[in-house]
């Protein structure tokens, strides 16, 4: 199976004021579940089927990682809708191996955890200004406790990282959940394969808890028994367990859906209607996101796995704990920029540690566009402008797909449009986002290099 190269995407796009049409786009598949199901399959002896996996730069990085762990991957069909993964029961790669994880943070962290079972692995990134700046210290400290030799960059253990796991053992570790839940998820995937198993104590609190519950759900689905307390601060996983080959069906991706939902929620046109399917009811992130749109006054309904949102409603200010839907916050902030009154999003300190600084960089670019926001250490306060913003400027995506989504929403509600630079980074999770928004009626234009050159 060859690496699917991202279609050559424009680096600069112009988003101009436009109303959105009644549309029923097919949303991408879940990044969270693609990651977890593919790794579980790569660790199981035998062949698993993964139906409708995500297609993105992050999934390309994930599939490279699965192969580096010793799994064989191939598409069952020409449309690349069913992925077959033949695992080996545990990571097997006798020779030193290097894995380029692109800009994929969760892929990187989970591969750091599993790579600790190999004699030698080096994890690298070709995004030194983004993933290369994200800390891994908390995970490396836990692995060192387990006897792994770790060489990371600097005090924060940034990529590139080399691990040597020949002397790895089980036991009991402590890991901080203050900056990311991914370090815990990485240890949970590693735990069943350790001699003596693993006990984990989580300290300093735990961010993004719904995604830890997703990790637990998938591990149990793959046949792993986990004891844990419901506070998610203590875990015990016995040794001698084996991942089981399964057929996994990937649901739709809620953070991708959030971007389109936010664009339609901010639309002033009551004929703008968005219908999205494959959105699994009962999903913790999805239910919290749905409630957030209700709280801002959007006209949003759910029937089964289908959500319908109609534009034209005047949104109003709201207050939410942003942590449970951490990846949706940039686009929720963008919608709040066009609500009546003030909105406050709190408990979002971990946004500083993503592909960009999703508090300060996001607020800086939206302010350039004409929005009024106050960035804080763990809050974002938005003073809405229901009349829209002026725009007419160039804003930057800061290597961050979710900033690009938020800035595109602002561009739709600007008088003079917005020029977005770094637009190619949309490929991380949603390569076809701008095309999709254009199909929904958005006035989106790719600028040639000449056009993009500042006058
Ligand atoms: O476990 C996961 O798959 C993820 C966890 C979250 O990160 P944090 O736990 O660092 O918030 C989220 O931002 C990321 O997109 C994916
Ligand atoms: C932060 C994100 O992903 P990751 O941590 O996997 O890079 C994201 O998708 O918004």
UniProtKB/TrEMBL annotation:
The reaction(s) annotated as catalysed by this protein in its Swiss-Prot or TrEMBL entry are: 3-phosphoshikimate + phosphoenolpyruvate = 5-O-(1-carboxyvinyl)-3-phosphoshikimate + phosphate
Top-rank taxon of the source lineage equals Bacteria
Identify the InterPro entries for this entry: Enolpyruvate_Tfrase_dom, Enolpyruvate_Tfrase_sf, EPSP_synthase, EPSP_synthase_CS, RNA3'P_cycl/enolpyr_Trfase_a/b
Residue positions annotated to bind 3-phosphoshikimate are 31, 36, 180-182, 208, 327, 354
Pathway(s) per entry? Metabolic intermediate biosynthesis; chorismate biosynthesis; chorismate from D-erythrose 4-phosphate and phosphoenolpyruvate: step 6/7
| EC number assigned by the record | 2.5.1.19
Give the Pfam families listed for this entry.
EPSP_synthase (PF00275)
Q: Quick one: where is this thing mainly located?
A: cytoplasm
Keyword terms, alphabetized = Amino-acid biosynthesis, Aromatic amino acid biosynthesis, Cytoplasm, Transferase
Q: Where in the cell is it found?
A: Cytoplasm
Using the UniProt record, name the top-level EC class of this enzyme in a single word.
transferase
- Residues that coordinate or bind phosphoenolpyruvate: 31, 105, 134, 182, 358, 402, 428
Residues annotated as domain Enolpyruvate transferase: 26-437
Active site (record annotation): 327
**How would you summarize the oligomeric state and partners of this protein?**
Monomer.
Similarity field: Belongs to the EPSP synthase family.
The protein's role, per its UniProt record: Catalyzes the transfer of the enolpyruvyl moiety of phosphoenolpyruvate (PEP) to the 5-hydroxyl of shikimate-3-phosphate (S3P) to produce enolpyruvyl shikimate-3-phosphate and inorganic phosphate.
What protein am I looking at? 3-phosphoshikimate 1-carboxyvinyltransferase
């Amino acid at each position: 199976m060859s690496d699917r190269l991202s279609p050559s995407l424009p680096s600069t796009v112009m988003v101009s004021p436009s109303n959105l049409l009644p549309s029923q786009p097919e949303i991408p598949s879940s990044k969270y579940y693609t990651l977890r199901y593919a790794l579980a399959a790569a660790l199981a002896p035998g062949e698993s089927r993964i139906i409708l996996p995500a297609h993105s730069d992050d999934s390309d990085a994930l599939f490279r990682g699965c192969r580096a762990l010793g799994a064989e991957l191939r598409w069952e069909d020409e449309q690349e809708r069913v992925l077959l993964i033949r695992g080996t029961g545990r990571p097997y790669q006798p020779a030193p191996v290097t894995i380029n994880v692109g800009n994929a943070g969760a892929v990187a962290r989970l591969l750091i955890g599993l790579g600790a079972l190999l004699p030698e692995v080096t994890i690298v990134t070709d995004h030194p200004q983004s993933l290369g700046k994200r800390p891994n210290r908390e995970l490396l400290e836990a692995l060192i406790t387990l006897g792994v030799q770790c060489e990371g960059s600097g005090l924060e253990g940034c990529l590139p990282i080399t691990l040597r796991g020949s002397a790895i053992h089980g036991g009991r570790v402590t890991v901080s959940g203050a900056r990311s839940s991914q370090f815990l998820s990485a240890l949970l995937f590693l735990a069943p394969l350790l001699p003596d198993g693993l006990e984990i104590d989580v300290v300093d609190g735990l961010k993004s808890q719904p995604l830890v519950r997703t990790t637990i759900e998938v591990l149990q689905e793959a046949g792993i028994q986990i004891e844990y307390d419901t506070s998610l601060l203590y875990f015990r996983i016995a040794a001698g367990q084996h991942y089981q080959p399964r057929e996994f069906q990937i649901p739709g991706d809620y953070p991708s859906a959030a971007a389109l939902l936010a664009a339609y929620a901010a639309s002033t046109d009551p004929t703008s209607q968005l219908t999205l399917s494959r959105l699994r009811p009962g999903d913790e992130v999805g239910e919290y996101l749905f409630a957030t749109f209700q709280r801002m006054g959007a006209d949003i309904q759910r029937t089964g796995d289908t959500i319908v949102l109609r534009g034209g409603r005047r949104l109003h200010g709201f207050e939410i704990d942003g942590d449970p839907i951490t990846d949706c916050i940039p686009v929720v902030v963008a919608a709040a920029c066009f609500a009546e009154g003030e909105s406050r999003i709190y408990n979002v300190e971990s946004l500083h540690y993503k592909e960009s600084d999703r508090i300060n960089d996001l607020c800086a670019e939206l302010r350039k566009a004409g929005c009024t926001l106050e960035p804080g250490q763990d809050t974002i306060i938005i003073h809405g402008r229901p009349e829209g913003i002026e725009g007419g400027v160039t804003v930057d995506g800061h290597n961050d797909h979710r900033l690009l989504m938020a800035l595109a929403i602002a561009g739709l509600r600007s008088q003079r449009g917005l020029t977005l630079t770094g637009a190619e980074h949309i490929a991380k999770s949603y390569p076809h986002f701008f095309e999709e928004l254009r199909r929904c009626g958005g006035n989106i234009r790719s600028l040639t290099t000449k056009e993009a050159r500042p006058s």
